[in-house]
Fold:
Amino acid sequence: MGGAVVDEGPTGVKAPDGGWGWAVLLGCFIITGFSYAFPKAVSVFFKELMLEFGIGYSDTAWISSILLAMLYGTGPLCSVCVNRFGCRPVMLVGGLLASLGMVAASFCRSVIELYLTTGVLTGLGLSLNFQPSLIMLNRYFNKRRPVANGLAAAGSPVFLCALSPLGQLLQDHYGWRGGFLILGGLLLNCCVCAALMRPLEAPRAGAGAGGPGPQRPARRLLDLSVFRNCGFVVYAAAASIMVLGLFVPPVFVVGHAKDLGAPDTRAAFLLTVLGFVDIFSRPAAGFIAGLPKVRPYSVYLFSFAMFFNGFTDLAGSTASDYGGLVVFCVFFGISYGMVGALQFEVLMALVGTHTFSSAIGLVLLLEAIAVLIGPPSGGRLLDATHVYQYVFILAGAEVLAASLVLLLGNFFCIRRRPAGATKEGESPKPPADDRDNRDRVDSREVEHFLKAEPEKKGEVAHTPETSV
Structure:
């Protein structure tokens, strides 16, 4: 099952770390904003939809759930499409599908039709944009990639702060049908972002070269060999557990504030606080992760970010007034932003450029299952106990468990793996003069290896600290 990648970055091309990469970063920022903020922004229209179709909140909430499920669950399908046709064509089709879904939704006469248009069609379109944009970002940035990931991830809180008020404004002036129609037109900007994703080209062999230029390797449409990468398996397990509890507090914090007697406007302001802090937390986390002395240990930094988030949930469960929830949202915004900035940076470091398109699709599929389980499980616990503190404790315990899985799995796999292994599926023999030094690699060697390897291959090196 082989297929050549149309715009797959050739293995001999060095990541430019700038130039046109900044245009790619801008496109990724916009795509990330639409992908993560849109499922939350459409919730502004839920009350009007309930009146229009005579349904309950749980029925309308399925629109956002299906959107998120399509965004995560179609990851392998997106990987196959990217590996067969390339990033730019897939993103162009995805932008058209996302726009078409919202335009078609404006003519819907039943909630089932909304599920199929806003949920399935728009969700699929956003998925076909989100994953390829990250792949292209990975190809254009190497040394500056942590910062680039942090800046791109900041699109989520920025667009959430913008799309929610815009949705309310559109609903007030044009109703939900007019609002959906205008939002559908707005999603056509995904096609503009797709046009920015210019594929990297391999340099042609010079006149004095004795052979052809770098050859683009044949690649499976969905490379399942990533499961032989111990680091990927540990990461996928930790990420799946993390997603069970990561999205729960933002869903329930507003209801918790209302339960404590806060007015609706003050309760909704908590999400504004969270989003505002998140905007600055993501680029800052990316900058820290890109420091030369920190980058070799990005896996451990990601584990700390999850631990910080889980601990914040446990501490937030003790909040007994509105002020306590404000403090919780500040610290949750910091930790949530750290997780958002580091999650794909760490995955890129673990699997490398060659298999990243398949790896991210498989990870998103596993996370899709957790996304569908996490918030509903918190809702069931709340229905059974009517105590919000238990929901926060459950979410915190799940994220803490994920941080321990990543930390311990990474640590023990590092101890078992030979330091000389550089790529998944390769077992190169160490040079004779180095065989006595391969059993231990100190921090200076790790840093030197991380700096030297990208100069040769244009992708992040697999060091004992960034690759399990």
In short: The longest helix spans residues 322-385. The chain has a mean pLDDT of 78. The CA atoms of residues 154 and 280 lie 8 Å apart.
